[in-house]
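Here is one chain, start to finish.
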Amino acid sequence: MKISTKGRYALRMLLDLAEHQEDGFVSLKDIANRQEISKKYLEQIVALLNRPDILQTNRGYQGGYRLARPAKDYSVGDILRITEGGLSPVACIEGDGMQCNRADSCATLPIWKGLYKVINEYLDSVTLQDMLDEQQARYSYDYVI
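Its structure:
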């Protein structure tokens, strides 16, 4: 399994919004500049994430985006499932019911199911707030005299 740029950039975009939540609505232009991602590509990502439970939108002057919920309520797993369409390492265990006709006798199936479980448990255990806290701890030791 490989996470695409869409998934990685969506995570960076939402993390940026979490970091600037106190600023109110944040423009895509500002996010694009800070994250060094093209605004056009962020527009494609917003189209996937533009749901009332993910983003709030404000149009016009002073318009932009903000998180609909606190950063602690967004798991990395949820974000990646939206942008990647799933986190399954192999097609035969994807949630859409696609099963291999060898599933009953497949010696490798338990490996893929175990990997899928570990991936989901880990990514669901990390939130945007966890990432912000880790980032702040890392940079709190960097100071210049």
